[in-house]
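User: Okay, second chain of the day. Same drill as before: sequence in, structure tokens out.
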Amino acid sequence: MTLIAFIPILWALSGQVDIPVLGKSEGSLVWIALTVSIGGLAISWFVGIKLPGLEYNNQKVEAAFRKRARLRRGRQGKLRRARETRRAISRSKNEIITGYFFTLRIL
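Assistant: Same drill. Structure tokens below.
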């Protein structure tokens, strides 16, 4: 769109500019702008044609990594919960025993 908007300006200015390859021809700046834009489009197309496949493969690898991390966290979480449960049980036993002995001393 920008190129289309500036074509009249480039056409008018190209008569005053001497370009070594094209000389003082009519619309030389327009032809250069069109060539550069088509060249940029072609380069972008060649570079970008492989990107969807690469992104898909990247997402598969990341999903596998997240799955392994989640499984690892799940196992570690189970171990952690088991340790916490054992600690809670031992604390409650200690509190019961300590409380029992405390009450025996009072009596």
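The chain has three helices and no strands.

User: Thanks, on to the next one.
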